[in-house]
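Now for my pick.
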Amino acid sequence: MTRLRGTIAAVAATALVVAAPAVAGSLVLHPSGFGEKSYSSWKGGEGLDDSTGAKQQALYFQKNTATTTNAAGVAVFKGVEGLPTSALGDLSFYWRTDGHCGGGAPRFNLRVETAPGVRQTFFIGCQGMVPGAEETNENGTFQERTMAGPLPPGDVVSLALVFDEGNDVGRCNGTAGFTGGASCVYLDNIRAANHTWTSASDNGNGEEVIQSSTPLALLLGEPIALALG
């Protein structure tokens, strides 16, 4: 079931061709971003324990400008294109509670081909996700947030994490954005397609992804975004 959520520009990768189903070991979470003072990147010493190594990486997102600015920190999931949405399992992450958790960001943006030639974008923001377990270490307190399902039936066109709520509504490191000039969040233990990213080394190719200098494209063809409900 869906409900009208409002007009939002959906964010996805520049390549939108539906690919063959992913094979084991090919899943990649690629940090990037576009626009003024906005990006995402893995950072050490900011997260929970990693599955390998001791860097305690977390995925950092920032948008240090107004929400109305055409900009966002983005991380795109590669290897899920063409999968049925049922193969995504629970979409979830742990957010560090000193960062922003708003009604629209951070969020999973899921673009689905619900029928031949019919594509829609589904999302729900951090604040509307189901809260779960908490973990605390020297880097802070992290709370699990899960995107409530069921996901709409269809084939995945693209899946991304999007952070596009700026410093007029956000916060960063416990300080209100309009006071500190920043809106940011750290995410960890990111889960999609039954795979968990605790660090960049959890990518299927075993390589750490470097921040891309190439902006991602905006999907301007769909003026209405739908939220899961």
Notes: The CA atoms of residues 74 and 162 lie 5 Å apart. Confidence is low (pLDDT under 50) at residues 1-25, 206-229.
